[in-house]
DNA-directed RNA polymerase subunit beta (Saccharibacillus sacchari), 72 residues
Amino acid sequence: MEKVMDEQSEVPVRRKRTFGRRLLRFILFLLFFAICLAGGLVFGYVYIGKQELEEAFKPETWMHVFDLVFAP
């Protein structure tokens, strides 16, 4: 006896992801990454370091930290 597959029993074909969907996923990843980075920055600098919130977002602060870490 030969098995015949009818249309209802076929496995559905997966559609390829479109460019727009991949771009949206990448943008959401970058947004989530930026939010996590900012949250970690605030937590570490303000709560652990006991500094003011405004100083956490100043470029001079992070240039100083960079100089301390990579000083010869």
The chain has a mean pLDDT of 85.
